[in-house]
Amino acid sequence: MALDADARRKAQIQIARKLHDPVYASGCAHLLESLTETEEGRIALSIAFQEHQANRVAGSPAPAFVQLAAAGALGSAAGGGLLLAGLELLHRLPDDHQGENSAPDTPSPAAPAAPDPLRIPVTIAAWQGELERRNERFGQPSGSWCYVRPGTYRIGGWERDAAAANLALDGFWIARTPVTVAQYAAFIEAGGYRDSRWWTPQGKDWLRGQKEPKPWRWRESPFNSRPQQAVTGVRWYEATAFCAWLSAQLARSLPRGYTLRLPTEAEWEAAAAYDAAWQRRSYPWGNDLPTARTAVFDRSWEEASPDVATCPAGAAVCGALDMVGTVWEWTVSSYQAYPERAHWLKEDFTTNDYDIPARGDSYYSSNVRCGARYRPDPVFDLVLDYDGGVRVCVSPRSR
Length: 399
Hints:
alpha+beta; 4-stranded antiparallel beta sheet; 10 strands
């Protein structure tokens, strides 16, 4: 028998009370996480999300479980992210002191919106629009941006007896996907390689020695040939110049004291590995081994990089996609200073510095873990020339 609006609202209040109890909350998290471990469970969550979307379009309420599952389905395939989304719904319900005595004609609370559909900005106007829509809700990405909470993160220690450090990070936003060919092309077309303002001192020296500077195999199909393809063959100097150019275009839209740049190793790791309960996982989606559903990896080099966002089931809990596999991602720290100073910015490197960390591995590797690291030089490397990519973040200017 269908419940009327008042009965449904009372049921939601009872759910809220139960889920405020840690025992029930933990049980729900385990249930949702277990659902993602089987094909049948993943199909059920997919159907739940589709029903939720259909109900939103039709204007009718979805069952409470569908709301809980759907609210987190795009941001994370793990129970922690789903539960966090569910708890946000519960916080919108009446407080306990209102309880069942609240007025029956009070409108039912609105369910939280599912994460905004992925939008990949190319024009400066589109980038500005995405920045203005960003939020500070972990696990609920807004379009192109995912929020990573401030706090202390354990960085390093991925292997037995390896060093680890507890590092305090400010809150920041990381791009939901790596930079695409279309996004990087906008930098080239805007004269980014002709304007020395965007380049580090060492980058300028490198640029002066290049006859036709551009990413490796630029526009040579299948490399760097599709708009939504993850850009590859980008040297560190080029990646930092792209960030400096884009940050200058978006200066009025950035939070005070923040800039758009490459992430530090600590920021990258916090975004890729941590769940809603501040627990670190081996992979962005959890601790299960990667599959074709969760990451693009173990392909032949000749296939070139994939389009971004092709594996939503592999999302990190913050909402970021393609954090492992797809392309190696440059960072702006010192490889040798890891992990104790993995949150410090290093502003430049000489061409002989084998000290720049790249993270996440690539589409033609099988070592796609949150702890995977690589140590190339900034301009030439047999691996990074092929699949060096870029992911930007909006973070504090310096540390």
